[in-house]
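Appendix B. Chain record.
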Amino acid sequence: MSGPAKIAILVSGRGSNMQSLVKAAGDVYQVVVVASDKPEAAGLAWARERGIPTFALSPKGIGKIAYEAALDGALRAAGAEYIALAGYMRLLSDKFVADWRGRIVNIHPSLLPKYKGLDTHARAIEAGDAEAGCSIHLVTEELDGGEVLGQARVPILPGDDAETLAARVLAEEHRLYPRVLAEWLTR
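Structure tokens predicted for this chain:
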């Protein structure tokens, strides 16, 4: 690789994982754009305040095909080579995933392959699991089904509810994502 890899980060909310990726950027990767399906996402404002280019477009009213075409165009115009999903809550189409095959990673708040999809913390507690955690994985057409690149584990403590567990898992996400992204880009 000549120079740092150019990363686009997709967010739908506050972008706390995006912030950890931006803060860790350097020799291995640089963030060239932060994009969102929610123009009001707090993560966009944070990125703009730091001089990072942003792209925001709601798919409402234009549909998934037009939205993803515009998103793809914006990412390519920014020079993105890879995509890191960081709290991006929209499912990408099979076509979009195929167009970026092997170049999209995601962070998911469970120990995959357990608890794909939503409500992962509550589901782990309800199942009586001793631990929960987070996973970084390649994105494929199967929801949360791509190769797992790294995981972090946290114990489920007596009295935990979904919110207390989520807070401890999130702290691990912020440590895990930048490290695994850098390792993946240099392997």
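Further analysis of this model is presented in Appendix C.
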